[in-house]
Amino acid sequence: MNRRTNLITTLALSMLMATAGIASADTIKIGINQPLTGPFAASGTYIVDGAKIAAEEINANGGILGNQVELVIEDNKSNPTEAAAVAEKLIERDKVPVIMGAWGSSLTLAAMPKLMQYEVPMLVETSSSSKITKQGNPYIFRISPPSWVEAALFKTLLPSLDIKKVDFLAINNDWGRGTITDFTTMFQENGVEVGLTEIMDQAAQDMSAQLSKIKSSDADTIIVTTAVEQLTLVLKQAAALGITKRIITTGGSQNPDQLIDQAGAAANNTMHMVFFAPWMPEKSPHPDQAKAFIDAWEKAGHDKAGLTESYRGYDGIRVIKAAIEKAGAAEPQAIRDAFWQIEVPTLNGTVTFVKDGPEGRESGQYMANGTLIKIVDGKIVLAGS
After folding, report:
1. Whole-model pTM above 0.70?
2. DSSP 281
3. Between 208-216 and 228-240, two packed helices, what is the crossing angle to 10 degrees?
4. Per the CATH hierarchy, to which homologous superfamily does domain 27-146+287-365 belong?
């Protein structure tokens, strides 16, 4: 009797395990490694909200390869050590075949060794440090522009801006330092003098010392690189000090609508490089797609200020979907290989990847589009219009 009972129990357990296996096969997991707390929390949350809209659309239209998409979302706390730990957790515990992350360049760089260790690809949606695709990590595919691509985009604007001399104010991380390096090279090659280089820690709230030095310089333009929370403080403090020089921000993480709401008049006449311009969707590479995303964002009840950041999460998930479909299976190596073969219409343009980095170990880089906008009397217009 005991033997028979044990046999029945074993059979029952086997059936349960098989059923569990079938259930888990009903979803395709995509790991999300984003800062949901800490200094970059606002931006990371926007990315996640954009990703959720993409996943909802995909699932409403049959999913991927007949399976529903499951986003496995983890908070890297705006901390590089946590970003690496999150990457490992997503791969080892959650068994995701692909990740999207990790917003900041320092966060992404910290997570990258884990991708190499476990041979799992990651779609980089925001980070701009040139080091990310130059290190020789074949599991990295980036849809955001590195700082050298953004500098090249900015170069085309120089004739209309008539910049003679610039000072830099940048966050003290890989993003900020990389921007200074690549923009300095571009400016110097095009006859623009580079003056002061001022750095601010990512948690700093008082930038008056750096801004006072910049006020005393003879530069006509200030290039600022930081996330929207700190940028709001910079604009307010610059206005309080009576700085009237032109302020131009880089990186596409300024959320101009949020600046208007939170910095008020201090945001007027500032200029910002963005990579999705929701104020003029008809001028986007794929207008119908842009309008549909804006409508979905508003229907979800999200703040319009998040559109210029959230689009990255939306585009990232759609690009990952295309890679999985091209691969024909939710397997890391197949997805990595498929990234090289896709052509995906997104809110920023049609994504294809070119090789960047050491031969034989190249990362994938999409050559993104950018738009310079200006805040005038609390309204957003195209720069130069």
Report:
1. yes
2. G
3. 50
4. Response regulator (3.40.50.2300)
